[in-house]
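Pasting as-is:
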Amino acid sequence: MKDRFASRKYIIVGLILASALILIVRLFHIQIVDKTYRVSAANNALRPVTQYPARGLIYDRNGELMVYNQAAYDLLVIPVQTSAFDTARFNEILGITMEDFRERMRVAKAYSRRTPSVFLKMISSETYAVLQEELYRFPGFYVQARTLRKYTRPVAAHLLGYVGEVDNRLIARDSYYRSGDYIGVSGIEKSYEEKLRGSKGVDIFLVDVHNNIKGSYADGRYDTMAVPGTNLWSTVDLSLQEYGEKLMLNKTGSIVAIEPATGEILSLVSSPSYDPSLLVGRVRSSNFAGLQADTVKPLFDRALMASYPPGSTFKIMNGLIGLQEEVIRPTSLFSCNYGYHAGSLTVGCHSHRSPLNLPDAVAQSCNSWFCNAFRNILENSEYESVQEAYDRWREYLVAFGFGNKLGIDLPNELPGFVPARSYYDRYYGKDRWKALTVISLAIGQGEIGATPLQMANMVAVIANRGSFYIPHVIKKIGDDGTPSPLFTQRYTTGISPQNFEPVIEGMEGAVNGGEGSTARGARLDSIIICGKTGTAQNPHGKDHSIFVAFAPKDDPQIAIAVYVENAGFGSTFAAPIASLMIEKYLTGRIKRKYLEDYVLRVVITPDAKEE
């Protein structure tokens, strides 16, 4: 009998011990392993509030402020903490409808009933002032401070870029970002996001059952400070940028101006453009949709992304390559009888005196001269075939920055196009094409395409007599910052400095020469401008007007490329615009008001009609 009770005693003790062990394990799991209950309790007592840093400011090259911040506020909600309140008054303050309120609450509850989520983004300071007075009447809601971008002038939208909300893919890729955070989407805002964004902080508050803040948790011991973003100094001259956009009003095209000695971008204009403030705040989405639907494509950055035939401006390149390959000399004479003629092939030209040497051929833009020079380059006896000579010709172009991205510190740059030998092999058969097959390349037509940035870089190389620095838009990062080493490296092109002189002489003659010079309308009395006009054939309408130039001749401070779509000859609009930009930058004012008025009053529509 005693043995039976003894055995039962052991069983009961075992059950008690097992139950105790299960309870202990369960408590350990709840309190230590599983954080669900701890988080739920913390959410009822503590409120972590993210402190968003102010984004870095952006200045122009002269220290003039371009982009700064203004206060804005996000209204957050924790659905589980909400209770009945005066929704009519709540909606009145925020300027939303009851249907909007219900939809926002549905989205918040679907996201999480216990975790805060944004109910309404970017409330203005005026709305926040009213809401803050009555916020205690709306349980479950609280406000979080943010900043919005503000612009000192309504210009440089493509250059500066804009800020937008992160998506789920980015959140999954970068642990810094959370739902509702903002990130640079384009322009400088995107390229320098990690510098501009700063570092987020957090304040942890104690709240009561009514969601009222009772003070900092643990006297703020666990709070962290937000670190403001780093300020940036741009290379751009804001006044010049504004003037360039003014000149391009009611026109389609672009202006790129570079300081040759450094590669610093002085102005980067794409037209049509838009006011950058349109893509700020709660109106950003609707405004973006409108801009995207606009048939004139104001969001398209023509300076970096449009690829045009370089036209007659490209004759400069063939002159330089011909000199370097020693198949022509500055004194080489070629005749022109209204064009270049080879059998049944004719490349037409305008009326001018003949024959011409190299400087005069540049000044008067003779098609025949450069067709002869190009044929000499490709039929050079130093090479085993035309195709081998073509490869060498292409290498020079790539060294100048054509056919590849230059590497500017802005997103969305495109490479243009310089066809490789294989491109023609596919069309005409391997090594079955000749110099005359691709003769249109002699005058910048045919398959070649270049961006306005590449054309501005080309003329910067000429101004430097053979070298360049990668074009860039940020001069300094931080108050004591220095330029990126990437932009202080000097690149050479393989063209000897002395070979630039006859070409530059011709560019000077194009602007400052006598009868027959193609760009006399760009002449400036006080400064020697060296330039070259171009007219790019356009199969869809009137030809594009092109002009490239640098100035002053002996101390180049600005190199510029101007494209005006559907505007005809380069001398008609592109040359006057470039000349005015040079005058504005080098003298700080415009004396030739007649020329400015001429440019400003003309409307050039995409269908090439002038009004």
